[in-house]
Design a protein that fits this description.
The structure is a homodimer of 412-residue chains. Chain A has 13 helices and 20 strands. With 412 residues, the first copy, chain A, is an alpha/beta fold. In chain A, the strands form five sheets. In chain A, strands 3-6-2-1-9-11-12-10 form an eight-stranded mixed sheet, with helices on both faces. Chain A has a four-stranded antiparallel sheet with strand order 13-18-20-19, sandwiched between helices. Chain A starts with a strand and ends with a helix.
Chain lengths: 412, 412
């Protein structure tokens, strides 16, 4: 008998029938003798619908405190409906809002951080065989105000609950059946990974694999919560995200990620003197625009080219901000490009294998794909290429590192 | 400067534009120097939408605790949106859920009774010039569970808050501009009443005038909260519901109410012995069916006819219940009729005027309307007539007691 925290996202609870399906899935775990805590998101589309009403009144930036009151009502609907559906199946269940658990957070409305979780109510319910059905995405601050954790917050809620309860596993039940070596929509014989490490998953999540929110992965890694990504709609083991993997499993590269949501900006010909980076990035940061990759090439003429990437949605604002300030850092030229793709290879195996980068660059060169930017970490290498080469690059790298499903390739 | 509690129903906050309209209305009161506490319902249709989802899962009787979690999310949406709209107008505002106020209730989910209201948070907000925007219809029980007060509960929330805060007035802002001498859809020259007493309003509300929920009127009367019904959408004084009226205002009959939501059941030829009423009504009560009028005629033959009315929605169940038990009270016949109307005259002036009943019966007789049942209280007389005579009966009584708008009749 294990204690399992299960999180069901918006698509999994997309309508009444699906909520009933989730109830049946939870019931099977109870029948198997497990204790289950369920965390749910709002019905898919509901958060957007509420947000649209909020923006209709409050404009681009509706009042944060009230926006959280508004948005958190979405999860409230789901916990009530799922609890009803469980009781209909004869499974004792009880809905719990963020403040009923309680999930204590700071007061950063819209992006609150969990500070601690009371487990007393949850444990009392579990002791009585009750399935607590917890509203994800929400918590309560010290003043008793509702807070929300930001998009992807339900994953974080689930992981945090699993950590607080010392659960045996945290299942993220979603509409895909695991983490793949590459996006299966692009690579037909992409392989589902049985295991990945937290570090790899964190890179994959950050790099555009939408399966898990990076914050929840980080949280799970920090508190050593075994995390499993699996399908709500079909049976299967999914992908276990774990501390260290069996060596048998260990490939050099675990997966290829890609992201199309970035844009790059180049500030060319600025004096190569200390402080120029902060002069350029300072105004960007003050506009709350996040910067991802940063690259600085020193030229021979005492001038340098400074390139960085931002999210595409921030591209126009970032570009305009710099153009307004161009004089201040006496740049020769400021240019931008939002038709770029970031393609990355990720794997803890890289640590112990030299020459991975070379293999990557060679494979891209063989396809005549020009690399615009490179960024590396201990377990990943990312390159920026023109958007139109994205699929080709993913395919080339998937083949180069032999990530395809050999059984599938052989059998099908 | 007064302290005013304003309640806006579902139609008044029916969409984003209307919510913005409500915000402008509240802002005008603030500009005039008043302190305002706002209580709102869910956006019209929202409670029904949520209820439909609940019933889709939970059937006729969804789990009461979870149903309250589900339904209360509707008001949560409105308080957030209205608070945003007020802030957009530069009016400081803050949403408060039932448990944030807190509105303490018993644990009768779906029909909870308010036990006490903490005023500390509200007063602190008012002291700082903030408009508290409170979710109507909801409270919190001793276990921290969300409770709801039942349909019409937002009126009760508003009155209870006004009582707890010793507010100068509680405004029920709705889609009609006051209480009328009769339904203006039937009687074209029906007159808006400037004042009615709580007792009269209670009878009018109970008898089918949908303007106010009887429970809120009773509550207002008990705690002596001056209550005003007025329009959200147009200017005007509305109708003040008060303890005692100026004598000048005092008519014998204040208004004519009608209700089409009842059905009658007759158990004919039962032995006229003690206990027969409870034998008949006991099983009805145990099915949670409310009985309204009860009438027993004693015959000369030691047998009696027993007639009572129930809500039409309970008619079939009530009839079936009695037919199953007919043998037990050896009735000659059990019959029912759901094509009936209840028409009532209401007025505190009746107390001091004899002959009001006679005038009523004469007026109906003059129109050849047969009276099937009669029931009286100190300030009202109700008759049951065939449904098809309802409009005719209301019109005849409106004329008999000279309730028409004399100015309107003269000027128009």
């Amino acid at each position: 008998m294990a204690l399992i925290v299960q999180k069901y996202g918006g698509t999994s609870v997309g309508d009444v029938e699906r909520i009933q399906g989730v109830a049946r899935r939870v019931a099977r775990y109870k029948e198997a003798g497990h204790d289950v805590v369920v965390v749910v998101s709002a019905i898919s589309g509901e958060t957007n619908r509420l947000m649209a009403m909020g923006q209709q009144i409050g404009g681009d930036k509706p009042l944060p405190r009230e926006l959280d009151v508004l948005l958190s009502s979405g999860e409230q609907v789901t916990i009530a409906l799922l609890s009803m559906a469980l009781m209909q199946l004869g499974v004792s269940a009880k809905s719990l809002l963020g403040d009923q658990v309680a999930v204590h957070t700071d007061s950063a409305f819209g992006k609150a951080r969990i500070e601690r979780i009371d487990t007393q109510t949850l444990k009392a319910d579990l002791d009585q065989g009750v399935v607590p059905v917890v509203a994800g995405f929400q918590g309560v601050n010290g003043d008793g105000d509702i807070t929300t954790l930001g998009r992807g917050g339900s994953d974080t809620s689930a992981v945090a609950l699993a950590a607080a309860l010392h659960a045996d596993e945290c299942e993220i039940c979603t509409d895909v059946d695991g983490v793949y070596t590459a996006d299966p929509r692009i690579i037909k014989d992409a392989r589902r990974l049985d295991q990945v490490t937290f570090e790899e998953m964190l890179e994959l999540a950050s790099l555009g694999s939408k399966v898990l929110h990076p914050r929840s992965v980080e949280f799970a890694g920090r508190y050593k919560v075994p995390l499993r990504v699996l399908s709500t709609f079909q049976e299967g083991p999914g992908t276990l995200i774990t501390m260290e993997m069996d060596n048998m499993e260990q490939a050099i590269v675990s997966g290829i990620a890609h992201a199309l949501d970035e844009a790059k900006i180049t500030v060319a010909g600025v004096p190569d003197i200390p402080g120029v980076a902060s002069k350029i990035l300072g105004p960007i940061g003050r506009k709350n625009i996040e910067v991802d990759m940063i690259l600085q090439n020193t030229g021979a003429d005492g001038l340098t080219d400074f390139t960085f990437t931002v999210k595409r949605q921030d591209f126009a604002e970032a570009l305009a901000t710099l153009e307004n300030m161009a004089k201040e850092f006496s740049a020769r030229e400021i240019s931008g490009d939002d038709a770029i793709a970031k393609v990355s290879i990720v794997g803890v195996g890289m640590r112990s294998h030299a020459g991975v980068a070379t293999r990557m660059f060679d494979a891209l060169a063989a396809e005549n794909i020009n690399i615009q930017m490179i960024s590396t970490s201990e377990i990943k290498i990312s390159v920026v290429v023109a958007e139109r080469y994205m699929e080709l690059a993913v395919r080339a790298l998937h083949a180069e590192f032999e990530l395809h499903d050999q059984e599938q390739s052989a059998n099908v």
